[in-house]
């Protein structure tokens, strides 16, 4: 149990986030956002803004900054502001005012007069469903729809016709914004070598690629720094509008420029979670064995169709064994802010629908919902030959049921005074992935080591993991290892995305450590070195040979060296041709609904996870607890509400409800510990996203158990329980 190594810096205010960087001569930029949902900007009158006190520049589609289209192999196209006069959503960046102070820039931004030619806008799923389109093929090439049928079965409908018990229901989930504590911001400084951009993101390398493309310079001229990141969750994967604008304006003005979004702007000038509508059909025999599953999904997307929230493919293929499966994924382009990755994209809303439907099937069968899930436990994703490398979902349920007191649950719930009390469960799954990553290890003459990589720790605990795995790999105490992240000058790290960072970086740490120890032993036994001519070995941070030993620091000092460095790289190999890899979990929740006020309160929650090796219990627990809280938020609190004109009605942290301490009881998190070394050398499978998966369904299922009311949309409000 190691405390977060960066905790003292964070809690004492010494941690410097992107916008905390200041430079002599720095100017401040403020974004101007559109006030219609769809149309063309006819004119922008910037006369008053330009003559306002302190104003240095007013940029717009008619007087743009030099920025170019951005496309990367990893994320495809990323939108770059001010490139044309088209407005596709309310709150889109359409101008940038730079002034001597933040207040001057903000005041001048209010003076920009915009004339629009407005067009009718589609701003709700109801508006857009009629014109839904097939989703483009997913990144792994899967088509938008897929049908897998048992031999001799002609159609999925035939499989349902042959199913003695069928449940069918349509579920919906609300759009969300990441609402990270740190709003998107950037500080850009140009020098002889190029530009340095300080901006919170999920991986310095991607930011370098995107900024270089946008600025039309070589990647060697962009230095991306993100030492601390105040929350990301997928919302700081792509480079943000403030970063593009600050970098381009700093170049145009020849001064450092800082740009930060106001909280309200975060809700539109970034991207968030799609709204979804999902129709589930499940067919089973009387014993609860699934015969057929169908999952048809619609997700909102921006008019540029830049992101698909893959609820069907990301969920129903992976959770349960069935011989017959039909999936489809459609997109609903809307005049709303763009959608993007948000913690467990696909699985989070997808598991709400699927795991609610499974609960409905359990009710129809009069069967315990855990029993139903275990009966359909799959050993491989449906239609794939590759079995999971390790899967202990059944143990998650058994351990969880005992810990949670599941045996006390009745199908009708129970009462406690004026409270109706129910319990719910859901399965959770998230694929275990890995990205290429490189790590440099430096042994220093003072007997400490430095582990550096260009990845990022947006609160995940990666920094702490690097010191632990670094210490373990070098066979020294972790407090002798200084971890460094968040700088593109370090070897290219992976992304803190897709629950991949620990597995990716740790594997590279192990390889780098082996290399630097080899190099150290080579130095130790070179001619004129202390161990010349004797057999050498390494243990506990010391070189041993010829009956004596020196610490690596002593050896480096004897050789008059300050340090010795080596780099290790790792990338996914052919393991994905041999197995499927996922983390698994069982979510348990107890909800109390007040008989008269109908308020629903989560009173207990437990998550049991099979996520491979857990490197640091404390930060791992924190990751999972954060995800579970997000699941409660999705179930009972969180929704971005858009007015018909596309303006968000609750674009602040007063109106955009997230749980506060009073909403969250003690959270019990339990890890099964089965290292998965078929996936990577360190054995970790990923915990960043799975904590939120299934949680919303566990809450909704508990609400049903308490009240008998099945709510098929989230968030669930008091009105739903009247
Ligand atoms: Mo995240 S949604 O893993 O960037």
Descriptive account of the structure:
The chain is of the alpha+beta class. Among the domains are: 368-433 and 574-722, Aldehyde oxidase/xanthine dehydrogenase, molybdopterin binding domain (Aldehyde Oxidoreductase, domain 4, 2-Layer Sandwich); 437-571, Aldehyde oxidase/xanthine dehydrogenase, molybdopterin binding domain (Aldehyde Oxidoreductase, domain 4, 2-Layer Sandwich), CATH 3.30.365.10. It contains 17 helices and 31 strands. The strands form seven sheets. A seven-stranded mixed beta sheet has the order 3-7-1-15-12-13-14, sandwiched between helices. Strand 16 and strand 17 form a beta hairpin. The two termini are 45 Å apart. Bound molecules: dioxothiomolybdenum(VI) ion (MOS). Dioxothiomolybdenum(VI) ion is lined by residues 202, 233-234, 237, 341-343, 345, 497-498, 688-689. Dioxothiomolybdenum(VI) ion (MOS) binds at residues 202, 233-234, 237, 341-343, 345, 497-498, 688-689.
């Amino acid at each position: 149990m190691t405390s977060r190594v960066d905790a003292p810096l964070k809690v004492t205010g010494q941690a410097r986030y992107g916008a905390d960087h200041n430079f002599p001569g720095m100017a401040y930029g403020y974004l101007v956002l559109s006030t219609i949902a769809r149309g063309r900007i006819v004119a922008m009158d910037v006369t008053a803004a330009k003559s306002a006190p302190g104003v240095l520049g007013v940029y717009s589609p008619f007087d743009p900054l030099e920025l170019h289209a951005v496309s990367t192999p990893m994320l495809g196209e990323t939108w770059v502001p001010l490139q044309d006069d088209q407005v596709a959503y309310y709150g889109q960046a359409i101008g940038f005012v730079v002034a001597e102070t933040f207040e001057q820039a903000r005041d001048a931004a209010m003076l920009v007069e915009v004339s629009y030619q407005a067009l009718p806008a589609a701003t709700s799923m109801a508006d857009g469903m009629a014109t839904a389109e097939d989703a483009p093929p997913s990144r792994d090439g899967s088509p938008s729809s897929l049908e897998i049928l048992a031999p001799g079965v002609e159609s999925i409908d035939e499989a349902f016709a042959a199913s003695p018990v069928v449940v069918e229901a349509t579920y919906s989930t609300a759009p969300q914004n990441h609402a990270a504590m740190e709003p998107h911001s950037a500080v850009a400084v140009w020098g002889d070598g190029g530009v340095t951009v300080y901006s919170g993101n999920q991986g310095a390398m991607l930011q370098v690629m995107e900024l270089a493309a946008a600025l039309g310079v070589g990647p060697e001229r962009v230095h991306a720094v993100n030492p601390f990141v105040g929350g990301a969750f997928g919302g700081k994967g792509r480079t943000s509008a403030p970063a593009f604008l600050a970098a381009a304006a700093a170049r145009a003005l020849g001064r450092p420029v800082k740009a930060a979004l106001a909280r309200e702007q975060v809700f539109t000038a970034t991207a968030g979670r799609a709204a979804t509508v999902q129709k589930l059909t499940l067919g089973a025999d009387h014993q609860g064995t699934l015969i057929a599953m169908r999952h048809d999904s619609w997700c909102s997307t921006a008019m540029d169709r830049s992101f698909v929230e893959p609820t069907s493919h990301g969920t129903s293929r992976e959770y349960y064994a069935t011989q017959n499966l039909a999936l489809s994924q459609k997109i609903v382009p809307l005049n709303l802010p763009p959608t993007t990755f948000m913690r467990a994209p696909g699985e989070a809303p997808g598991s709400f629908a699927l795991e609610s439907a499974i609960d409905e099937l359990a009710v129809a069968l009069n069967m315990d919902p855990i029993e139903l899930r275990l009966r359909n436990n799959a050993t491989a994703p449906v239609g794939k030959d590759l079995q999971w490398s390790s899967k202990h979902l059944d143990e998650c349920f058994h351990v969880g049921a005992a810990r949670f007191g599941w045996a006390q649950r009745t199908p009708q719930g129970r009462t406690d005074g004026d409270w109706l009390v129910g319990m719910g469960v859901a399965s959770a799954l998230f694929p275990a992935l890995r990205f290429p990553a490189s790590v440099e290890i430096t042994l220093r003459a003072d007997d400490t080591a430095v582990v550096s990589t260009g990845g990022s720790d947006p609160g995940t605990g990666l920094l702490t993991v690097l010191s632990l795995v670094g210490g373990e790999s070098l066979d020294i105490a972790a407090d002798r290892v200084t971890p460094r992240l968040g700088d593109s000058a370090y070897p290219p790290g992976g992304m803190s995305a897709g629950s991949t960072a620990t597995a990716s970086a740790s594997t590279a740490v192990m390889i780098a450590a082996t290399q630097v120890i080899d190099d150290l032993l080579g130095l130790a036994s070179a001619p004129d070195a202390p161990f010349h001519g004797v057999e050498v070995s390494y243990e506990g941070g010391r070189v041993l040979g010829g009956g004596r030993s020196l610490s690596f620091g002593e050896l480096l000092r004897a050789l008059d060296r300050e340090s010795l460095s080596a780099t290790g790289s790792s990338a996914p190999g052919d393991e994905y041709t041999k197995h499927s890899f996922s983390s698994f979990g069982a979510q348990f929740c107890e909800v109390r609904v007040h008989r008269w006020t109908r308020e629903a309160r989560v009173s207990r929650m437990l998550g049991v996870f099979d996520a491979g090796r857990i490197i640091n219990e404390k930060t791992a627990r924190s990751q999972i607890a954060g995800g579970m809280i997000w699941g409660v938020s999705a179930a009972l609190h969180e929704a971005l509400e858009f007015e018909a004109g596309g303006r968000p009605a609750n674009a602040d942290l007063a109106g955009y409800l997230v749980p506060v301490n009073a909403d969250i009881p003690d959270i019990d998190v339990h890890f099964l510990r089965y290292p998965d070394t078929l996936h990577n050398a360190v054995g970790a499978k990923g915990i960043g996203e799975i904590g939120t998966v299934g949680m919303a369904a566990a809450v909704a299922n508990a609400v049903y158990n308490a009240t008998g009311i099945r709510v098929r949309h989230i968030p669930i409000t008091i009105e739903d329980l009247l």
